[in-house]
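Standup notes
- DV: blocked on the single-chain target, sequence here:
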Amino acid sequence: MFSFGAILIFLGVFSLIFKAKWMLIVFGILLILLGLWNIGTTGLEGTTGFWSILGIFQIYWGVKEIRMFSKLNKKK
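- DV (later): unblocked, structure below
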């Protein structure tokens, strides 16, 4: 099974070492993908509720990360 958690931990450590603004876009895209994954697999597992709600919040947080990147680029 694909593990988003391991990828996010690796990218988190990577972003602490190499502080780059473009990492916000990477985090945003991964959060959106993870949110879609959580929403999409909710029906397959027969559960509703927690994972769907978490997926919606993850998509929201991903969009916020991407917007934060665009705000930081405008401040140049």
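- Follow-up: The helical segments are 4-17, 23-45, 50-74.
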